[in-house]
Specification:
Layout: E1 7-9, H1 27-34, H2 73-79, E2 108-109, H3 133-136, E3 138-143, E4 146-151, E5 174-175, H4 180-194, E6 208-209, E7 212-217, E8 228-235, E9 241-247, H5 255-259, H6 262-267, E10 276-283, E11 290-296, E12 302-303, H7 304-308, E13 316-318, E14 323-325, H8 343-362, E15 375-378, E16 381-384, H9 389-393, H10 400-420, H11 431-441, H12 444-454, H13 466-469, H14 472-510, H15 520-523, H16 526-539, H17 552-564, E17 569-573, E18 580-584, H18 585-602
Antiparallel strand pairs: 1-18, 2-5, 3-4, 6-7, 7-8, 8-9, 9-11, 10-11, 12-15, 13-14, 15-16, 17-18
Bound molecules: adenosine-5'-triphosphate (ATP).
The site of adenosine-5'-triphosphate has 18 residues, from β8, β11 and β12.
Length: 607
């Protein structure tokens, strides 16, 4: 028995059928003998709590009575957790048939650290089962310094109905992966980012516009009859996508005079305003002299017009190849009548648009175009789009206060349109009918807001609608806060995935490298040997019937413990079954770090 850095060979109970000895000349023995570093050790007198199903070589096991046939593998994988470990596990090397393929990916965890575990730091992926019962099925016994846990035979197996159903999110399970709705939304956005243009479908669209390339129209376009068009474009300067708003054939005669507000717009930063990044003047790429405004690109954003008034739900539509992506969240709005929005949603819009206007007005600017086509929805927030265009194409010398008043007027029109479900409900001839409809169907506060915004007789500022919004502000704020918390929670789940992925990547980088095949020091001794056994312990456990024992929870929990360097000990068995090693995760972590450092030290890293 040789002490070493945190792990030690334990020959098991001497003179019993389960005992093992390291062969005197074996490489492991050599390694352990050479490894005289100080560290925690435990000998025959020291009871060790081993949190693991104990491996016992098959040939040394008492022959069990033939078990009933196992349930199908998918069910086993879904249902098994560490609690359900069969009586004895067989070392990898002793099974004749290969393990079945590991096809199932579980979005649920079902593993819980046993109660006897001591000193282990809290795990970042929490435990699932709240029932104590499965643990109580274990018996434990200490022999020769090793605590063996075994399973008390159950009268009956788990009921058939206990099958895994990823959609149900049953009580007692934690969904570890990102929610399906959010995932669909993000994947669709990613698809929208990745859409590539078909040059043959759009021969009039240039391949590049200065440093922007891969232009994809964001709407159905007919370049001959349009005064403006909108594209997604990729900037090779920073690798980001932008929303390019082109004003056709608009030659800037007096750049200084016409573009003097651009810098102010570029500086404006507000969550409800799409940021303007750049303006290209007299751009020749489209065979004319165009004005091109580059804004941040929000994949699958859609205008209020599309969201509430148009039948088509798509936010990206290419009529030539019929490529269409629909945001799954786009249809979740409760429509009022034929179109428009309900009062709750309208208040949410009022608060967000008011916030945007407040920022614009306090910067000494005016929006100047505020209608259903210039407000986009993205997730659950809305943003004013294409700000600044009007100031360049049509500089206005009227006092800014007057321009800002006009913004408020347009804001009122927008609310009327949304409330009545008629995009032009604010028009003079339709207004009396719209007013009556709003009086009959909406609150006094909403009517007051519209009345205030449409009142041209007084000097007014956007701040004055705050008292009319009142407590609704808090409701919207709370809903945004919850959304932000939800996103953070989803993000942290993904962080977990990334962290565990890096760990697995490191392990696989280090283990069984072909180019070091001849170097026994690398592959079969010391740290790498420990890691190899650990890899089998984590991924290649088998049941005593020689079937692969698949439990995602076991895998994730082992990796978590490795990552945080838990002091908990596990028992690992070599594939041929003649070597048992008791080791703690902290030591395994050191083995991994050291091996990886050595590898990196000897090699160039390619990113
Ligand atoms: N920042 C942005 N990121 C992504 N998409 C955007 C952004 N701003 C606007 N869009 C999208 O670009 C399209 C613009 O459409 P379009 O050029 O027809 O302009 P419009 O203002 O909606 O219509 P109109 O021609 O009546 O002015 C809309 O689908 C809108 O959702």
């Amino acid at each position: 028995m040789q002490p070493s850095e945190g792990y030690q060979y334990d020959g098991g109970p001497p003179n019993t059928a389960h005992g093992h000895q390291i062969p005197a000349g074996s490489r492991l023995n050599q390694y352990l003998a050479n490894n005289n570093r100080q560290g925690p050790s435990f000998g025959p007198g020291t009871p060790i709590n081993v949190n693991a199903p104990v491996f016992v070589p098959k040939h040394q096991q008492p022959q069990p009575t033939p078990p009933p046939p196992p349930p199908p593998m998918a069910n086993q994988f879904a249902q098994l957790s560490i609690h359900d470990v069969p009586v004895q596990m067989i070392p990898f090397g002793q099974i004749s048939s290969g393990p079945p393929s590991f096809q199932q990916q579980l979005p649920h965890m079902s593993h819980r650290p046993p109660q006897h575990q001591q000193g282990a730091p809290p795990l970042s992926i929490p435990s699932i089962h709240h029932q104590q019962q499965p643990y109580d099925r274990y018996q434990h016994e200490s022999r020769g310094g090793t605590t063996y846990f075994y399973h008390e035979p159950q009268a009956e197996g788990p009921p058939e109905e206990e099958q895994y159903n990823p959609q149900e999110g049953q009580d007692g399970y934690i969904v570890v992966f990102i929610s399906s709705e959010l995932k669909a939304e993000l994947l669709n956005r990613q698809l929208a980012y990745d859409t590539k243009p078909d040059p043959s479908a759009y021969p009039d669209i240039p391949q590049t516009v200065e440093h922007y390339s891969s232009l994809v129209p964001l709407e159905s376009i007919n370049l001959q009859n349009q005064s403006h068009s909108t594209y997604k474009g990729f900037s090779c300067r920073d690798g980001n996508y932008y929303c390019l708003r082109r004003i056709h054939g608009n030659r800037i005669q007096h750049p200084g005079k016409q573009t003097h507000l651009v810098e102010q717009w570029k500086k404006l930063s507000h969550g409800n305003i799409v940021p303007l990044r750049e303006v290209l003047i007299n751009c020749r790429a489209f065979d004319d002299s165009s004005l091109v405004f580059a804004y941040d690109y929000y994949p699958l954003a859609e205008t209020l017009m599309v969201k509430h008034f148009e039948v088509k739900p798509a936010t990206f539509y290419d009529p030539n190849n019929a490529f269409r992506i629909t945001s799954p969240m786009a249809n979740s709005v409760v429509l009022h009548g034929a179109g428009g929005a309900n009062e709750t949603l309208i208040w949410s819009y009022i608060i967000q648009i008011a916030a945007a206007l407040r920022s614009i007005h306090s910067s000494g600017l005016a929006c100047r175009t505020l209608d259903l086509n210039k407000v986009i929805t993205y997730g659950n927030k809305i943003m004013l789009s294409f700000c600044g265009v009007q100031d360049v194409i049509d500089p206005d010398s009227t006092p800014i206060q007057q321009q800002q008043n006009e913004d408020l007027n347009m804001f009122g029109n927008l609310i009327v349109a949304l409330a009545t479900g008629r995009a032009n409900g604010y028009r003079k001839d339709l207004y009396p009918g719209s007013k009556k409809f709003i009086e009959d169907n909406f609150s006094m506060d909403l009517r007051n807001v519209i009345g205030f915004l449409h009142n041209n007789g007084t000097r007014k500022t956007i701040n004055e609608i705050m008292p009319m919004i009142g407590g609704r502000f808090f409701t919207v704020m709370e809903s945004m806060q919850s959304k932000s918390d939800l996103m953070e929670a989803e993000l942290s789940k993904e962080l977990e995935n990334g962290r565990l992925f890096r760990l697995i990547a490191k392990m696989n980088t280090v283990l069984e490298r072909v180019e070091y095949g001849a170097d026994e020091k690398w592959s079969e001794t010391g740290d790498r040997f420990m890691l190899k056994l650990f890899r089998d312990y984590v991924f290649h456990q088998v049941t005593d019937q020689g079937k692969a024992w698949l439990d995602m929870a076991h895998i994730v929990q082992c990796l978590n413990k490795l990552d945080c360097g838990s002091t908990e000990k596990i028992e690992m068995v070599s594939r041929c079954g003649d070597t048992q090693i008791i080791i703690d995760y902290a030591t395994l972590k050191r083995c991994l770090e050291k091996s990886f450092r050595e590898l990196v030290g000897n090699n160039m890293i390619h990113r």
